[in-house]
Amino acid sequence: MKKSVETIRGDSEGIAYELPVYRVSGSSASAPSAYIQAALHGDELPGVVAIDALMPRLRKAAAEGRIRGNLTIVPRANPIGANQLLFHAAQGRFDLGTRTNYNRDFPLLDRPDVSLLPGDDVPMSADKRLKARLLKLSVGHDIVLDLHCDDEGVAYLYVPDELWPAMEDCAANMGVDAVILWSGQSGSSFDEASLHPYLKMPRKEARLESRVVTTVEYRGVSDVYATVAEADAQGLYRLLVARGVIEDTWIETLKTFAGVVAPIDHVEMVPAPCAGAILYHVNPGDTVKAGAHIATIVRAPGEDGGRVEVLAPQDGYILTRRSHRATRAGDDLVKLVGTRPSDDARSGALEA
């Protein structure tokens, strides 16, 4: 395993950011290659510790000559966001200079050719340089995994429609609970930018049936535990074995996914009807019926009628909920996967 350090020039003189990258050369030119990155939103750590737990498995496989396909690993993909703090609170989701989400506005290439990406000599902000560099590192890999997390939630994947159900084995081997299928545009997120060049090619040449591109949501932002990291690392390793990147006859791989699968227009973002304190009555992973009491907003503490009930808009599965307990009117509280399309389904990316 070889380590290199990518340098991202900052927006001011004397400022630069370092991006460690680990690579393993596979033994077979015909084997699929894989790219894994974590913490594109700089303060999301479940994927970081999952990669940390995965690395000993990869080193052992490399030492035993069992890695067949090339591997590129970026444990912390966003050193800019990781260094953004405001009054001791991490601010890793949006670039503070451009106010742009770090998982939006990636370059959309017409073909998988990194020469089409802007170089460091092009005048642009540091967050754009970072996005161009991450695509340069990832383009050309057959498997692209972007590890994120939600506020509080189950483990789930965002999978492009074009890659399902061929990616069913990936969801099964990673051990996630749900899959959300999306199509169209998502604000030029990393997964959209990773797939876009291949959608411009003839299907046979693009090999979509064997391609993996997914955003992985590893539960909630506080789910950073050794046991969970080990389980997630085992899921990543099992996926690499199932797809032929790594050879391991001792690992049993899976083909069928038994979790929740739904199109993105079935996702209900249930808003708060008023401001106040949130009392949740459901947990991620719960199944509810339409009209079920999913939360209470304490609007006027101590007053008669000072509580407002929030009800499930339809039958469904609780995918996530907000980690904060103080809400404004209109803030999303719960992400519910319904049994039918949402009446106010949002196109493209679900959240900012």
UniProtKB/TrEMBL annotation:
Cofactor: Zn(2+)
GO MF term list: hydrolase activity, acting on ester bonds; metal ion binding
UniProt keywords, alphabetically: Hydrolase, Metal-binding, Zinc
Pfam families, per the entry: AstE_AspA_cat
Start and end residues of each Succinylglutamate desuccinylase/Aspartoacylase catalytic domain: 31-240
InterPro entries: AstE_AspA_cat, N-alpha-Ac-DABA_deacetylase
Gene3D superfamilies, sorted: Zn peptidases (3.40.630.10)
Top-rank taxon: Bacteria
Signal sequence, start to end: none
Protein's name according to its UniProt entry: Succinylglutamate desuccinylase/Aspartoacylase catalytic domain-containing protein
